[in-house]
Amino acid sequence: MAALPHDPRxxxxxxxxxxxxxxxxxxxxxxxxxxxxxxxxRYFRVSTANAAHPTAIVMDAPPAHEDCRPFIHVAALFGAAxxxxxxxxxxxxxxxxxxxxxxxxxxxxxxxxxxxxxAMYADAAVALVRIQAATRAGELPAYDRALLQRELDLFPQxxxxxxxxxxxxxxxxxxxxxxxxxxxxxxxAQPQVYVHRDYHSRNLMVLPGGANPxxxxxxxxxxxxxxxxxxxxxRDAYIEWDEEQQLDWLIRYWERAxxxxxxxxxxxxxxxxxxxxxxxxxxxxxxxxxxRLYHRDGKDGYLANLPLVLKYxxxxxxxYTELRKLIRLLDALEGAASPAGYTF
Length: 344
Prior knowledge:
By secondary structure, the chain is of the alpha+beta class. The protein has 2 domains: about 10-100, 2-Layer Sandwich (Phosphorylase Kinase, domain 1); about 110-335, Aminoglycoside 3'-phosphotransferase, Chain: A, domain 2. Helices cover about 45% and strands about 10% of the residues. The chain contains 11 helices and 9 strands. The protein has helices spanning about 10-20, 70-80, 110, 115-135, 145-165, 170-190, 230-235, 245-260, 270-295, 305-315, 325-335, and strands spanning about 25-35, 40-45, 55-60, 90, 95-100, 190-195, 205, 215, 220-225. The strands form 3 sheets. It has a 5-stranded antiparallel sheet with strand order 1-2-3-5-4, covered by helices on one side. A two-stranded antiparallel ribbon has the order 6-9. The longest helix has 28 residues, at about 270-295. It is globular. It starts with 7 loop residues before the first helix and ends in a 10-residue tail after the last helix. Residues about 335-344 have low confidence and may be disordered. Keywords: ATP-binding, Kinase, Nucleotide-binding, Transferase. This is N-acetylmuramate/N-acetylglucosamine kinase. One of its GO terms (molecular function) is kinase activity. InterPro entries: Aminoglycoside_PTrfase (IPR002575), Kinase-like_dom_sf (IPR011009).
């Protein structure tokens, strides 16, 4: 069996935790991988002698690629909103290390089933409303047109060109730009709140003793469209629910948000259209990201999730006249027929 390659960065991390002092007495040899990440960040679980934190998580965020400061800032914002997030126990921004409270290893994805889902999603909706209700201008970057467009551009660059190996005609490029412009006009007109950006089953944790969910991976939070995190939650790339069930959970969230004074559209039909169009932007982005993770980064685990994301994409694009040129484009690229579904 071949030896694992030497990991100088891991050696650096172990040296850092060893020097945290007697209040922690971290055992560097206890360091084990805690989770995978689609970025350059890595997470390790370590044992400590601290009675309040017998285990802790070390975030490894190489400064050349990642910045720990947004994580620290958003953790404070979301924590102040009454949401369970990992407490920052120690930090070294120069080296790119954080010691974090351990929220365990039970993700929502690992525990969701037909019997548990409604209660778990109700908890997630409560936490989401708290995050959104805490919105204050100037605390987070804007989810502006430039960022939304850069995300959309991942779809033709990585999914169409790289993954499918296709080149769009001038007419197809024009059709895609038209659909993107329609989406962006709607999205930018939506009420603006704090947006986690990856509020889904892999980033929500089941905690012992309640206070669910524990919320992770929020360092890219912005101020943006109010429907975004609801799309991430109920049109999750990693788990699928019947659309009637999605609607039930979404209505319950919408009612909770209205009672909390959040600026959701007073007409649920219009809110649902905003939710769907926001979802289409997200799913086009995700198709591009998953393709990039495979072709550029060698991470093939996300390929299994492409069919569900493409299904969401087709469902929404096929329902609205303004978006149907995208169906024509997908059919031309993949030679597939449009699925039946609801129409609005």
